[in-house]
Amino acid sequence: MKNLIKISILSLLFLMTACQIGPKQKAQVISSKVIYGEDNRIDTYKLNGGFWHEKVRAVAMKVRHRRMKKQSNGMIRLIGARLKKSKMMCDDEKFVGQRLNAECSGFLIGDDLLATAGHCVKDEFDCKNFSWVFDYDLKGPEDKKYHIIPEKNFYKCKKIISSVYKKHKDLDFAIIQLDKKVTDRTPLTLRKKDKIKTGTKLTIIGHPSGLPKKFANGAEVIKNSNNIFFKANLDSFQINSGSPVFNEETGIVEGILVRGDTDYHWAYQDKCNRVNTIKWDCKERDCRLEDVTRITALPKSLL
Question: What is this structure's pTM?
Answer without folding.
Answer: 0.85
